[in-house]
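**Fold tokens**
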Amino acid sequence: MNDSMQSPTTATDYDADTTTARSGLTIPGRSLLGGWRHTAQWTYLIMLIASAVALFASFVLSAETLQLARHPGQTLGCDINGVLSCSTVAQSWQAEIVKFGGLSYPNAFFGIAAESVFVTVAVIGLCQVRVPRWFAACTWFGGLAALAYAYWLFSQSMFVINALCPWCMVLMFSTTIQFMALSHATVVVQGLPPKADGLRTYYRLHIDLMMDAVWVLAVITLILVVDGPALFA
């Protein structure tokens, strides 16, 4: 008798959770898809690790920027050869594109601020805190902006400055993984966009893993093709 009464309650709770997800609130610990890889714990854990690595790289780049400011022309520890050179990239105008009041501000300082936000968002996700739809959407667009900025700097380093900064590449790849995890969580945990069955199928069939691998391998291949011989000179 008790079992028969509990079954409708379970179904009702499931329907209520589904309605809540569509209304723009996350379901703590619950994904719209089955499987551990689609849970908030996993997706936000990957995002947290990637964001922490990006934050660390931003701190290192900031420290090296200050070191160059104190001792212009000094060789940095990540100046390996003519192509792998942090100081060459740090002394270019692309390294300080924000200028205000006659002062220029290194990109690494903004990286610290941005990645601190993403670390916080990842922790919120891991704690299974309900967030409104607008917050989840703004977070994703913020991640997209950070990714676009990282790849713009990468393209400038490779094709304009003709030098690659090792820590900048760490930042770029960690930002890439951060965005992949954030997109995964936005679709399967946050339920955004609300009517995106195609996207949920994309993640349910694990097509994202293949596409992410192709993405990373394509970037590595581009680096090796353009600067491969000089990297190991």
About this structure: Helices lie at 2-22, 40-70, 86-90, 107-126, 133-161, 166-188, 197-204, 207-231. The chain has one domain: 35-74+82-226. The domain at 35-74+82-226 is CATH 1.20.1440.130 (de novo design (two linked rop proteins)). The longest helix spans residues 40-70.
